Amino acid sequence: MDAHRSVPDDDLPAVLDAELVALLNDAASTPPSPLDQLSLQRVKRRVLARIADEQAGRHLTVRADEGAWQPFGPGLTIKVLHESGGVMSYLVRLAPGAALPPHRHPVDEECLVLEGTLRIGDLVVGPGGFHLGRRDVLHRRVDSETGALIYLRGAVPDSTLLI
To answer: How many CB atoms lie within 10 A of CB 152?
Structure first.
């Protein structure tokens, strides 16, 4: 037992499976010889899979029926998915006829239309269409005649633009 550990090695959970431990032990007891590419790839995949399993809880998932939709302005609702360091990932639902006035973004803003049709000035963007609003460039009026659901990633939105 290591002097810094309070638990005997036998009581620790196994991190590597027995086959991988056997491969490592065999490699340590015999003179080194280069592994073939297929064996190297297999070992790498198994080690990376084990690391990914251990870190799975650090990811964030928001399912469609989770999270709260909040009013954001006339005909607009917002659902925040994630925010960190002043950058937000969020959904915006525009009711038919809803609009955002011309505005600027302090950072580039990515927009993906998920449902409906979005109009940005004279530009029309439908489902699956992507629009990048560049930082500090005036964004034309955004509206939707049909209603739309859009995914946005950019600076935390300023609701005072809507008043």
So the answer is: 20
